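User: Structure tokens for this complex, please. No commentary.
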Amino acid sequence: MATTATISISSDIAPGFSGIGESMTLTQAGTLIDIDSTTGFQIRKLSATGAVDLVTMVNELVEPKDSVASKIYIRNIGYKGVIDKSVGVTIGVNAEPIGKLYGGDWLVMPLTCIDADDITANPATDDTVVLEYVMFYEEA
Amino acid sequence: MATTTAAVTLTSDLMSTNMSVSASTTCMKAGTTADGLDQMEYGYVDIASGTAYDIIGNTPTASKASKLYIKNHSTDETYYVSVVLDAQAIGKLYGGDWMFIPADFHDANADIEITATGGTNKICYALFHEGTTLVAS
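Assistant:
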């Protein structure tokens, strides 16, 4: 076993679109060697607008290697079992907005893990919302 | 209502107890619970090394709930594409890697730009959105 991520997308927007189903094994950059480090699975509760660091690269106990094959998963899991599609949290990298995760939405994306490229979360409202996340990376 | 569903399963044995996380979301228009994303763009392109390209030609309406999927179908694990948004490096997709993000397209510079390295990379992408400005002929 290793670290794997599988995506399945179905949609009836376009007639004939048969969907997407793909899997990837998270490996170290340019190799077939399994990725070897993780932040572990974490949650963060947010109750106010304003950007906060979800991951502060320089504070990781194990220094991530820069500009390789790191990945992060983040999901807006709502609060106390209530997932509100109208409540969004903007996820950013180094203050650059990537996009907004509404209730239940998730992302998987690559990261540079450069010290300046912290992962930020900025709720659109003061409603309490919880993000779950895990980062996989190579040790520097 | 058009329905688009995106599901992910993550598994890992890096920790003492194996991790397995599954999540699924129905992709709705921004801030709504009743209306799903209703437009999409789906493509497959070969990207030669060295030049930066915008992966999406027609920029969707800004600050909506667009979702973008990109996979690098290159079979050589040393090939990769660098993904950049508004001059901010996001990360690299090596051969076999995929990403799925909410894409904000918050201003004219916020295109998703990719640059291939190693050789010609084979890239599949799908954008689910709620409107775009088409280019008049």
